[in-house]
Design a protein that fits this description.
Elements (H helix, E strand, L loop, with lengths): L2 H14 L2 H12 L2 E2 H8 L3 H13 L3 E6 L2 E6 L3 H13 L6 H7 L1 H5 L2
Length: 112
């Protein structure tokens, strides 16, 4: 993994590390939203929601387009996010052990 990939991955984890940003992503899974709609759904100030959206934009999880005076946000297709969520799902399965993980991912031990 090169420095650029590490930086992109760090930005992704930072974006996913906040419950409010996860809530925003849940809303955007349904479809495109105006900032105003998100502020109403979340019960937060517009400036707070905008700051969270900026973080999500920086990590390339969402995109924005202008429609008149409104900013419309939508979820980007993110293979990187899908991979992270898939691995997180594997790790959260009950009964998974380090031995079991290493058997299924032998290359992971070699990368250490």
């Amino acid at each position: 993994m090169d420095a650029q990939q590490r930086n992109q991955l760090a930005a992704l984890f930072h974006a996913l590390a906040d419950p409010t940003r996860l809530q925003i992503l849940e809303h955007l899974k349904i479809g495109e939203h105006k900032v105003k709609d998100l502020t109403e759904h979340l019960g937060l100030a517009q400036s707070t929601v905008s700051a969270h959206l900026a973080c999500l934009r920086d990590s390339e999880l969402v995109s924005v387009r202008t429609q008149g005076r409104a900013s419309m946000y939508s979820l980007n297709d993110s293979p990187q996010l899908e991979q992270v969520l898939s691995k997180a799902g594997e790790l959260s399965r009950p009964g998974i052990t380090a031995h079991h993980w290493n058997e299924q991912h032998p290359h992971a031990e070699a990368e250490k």
